[in-house]
Amino acid sequence: MLLQRTGEARHIMGCAMWDTDRAFVEASIREHDPQATVEAIRKGLFFLFYGLEFDYELPAKILAAIEFTVISIAG
Q1: What pLDDT digit, counting tens, does each position of 54-75 carry?
Q2: What is the distance between the alpha carbons of residues 39 and 30, in angstroms, rounded to a whole number?
Q3: Which residue of 16, 21, 31, 72 is 20 to 30 Å from 5, comparing CA positions?
């Protein structure tokens, strides 16, 4: 059934699934911490989606980039 769809339709469906999953995870983060900052939400999303996919050093670099991006946007 899925393969009968066009590539574009599969892509759109995948994006919709990603958006839904992200919304559920963000809601879970906010449920645990209603005062969560944008930075905390981004870090939480990163850990929940990709936390175990990297060695020790790369997540630290990614988290630093998240902090820098949030500061840059806010400042």
Answers
A1: 887 888 888 888 888 766 665 5
A2: 12
A3: 21
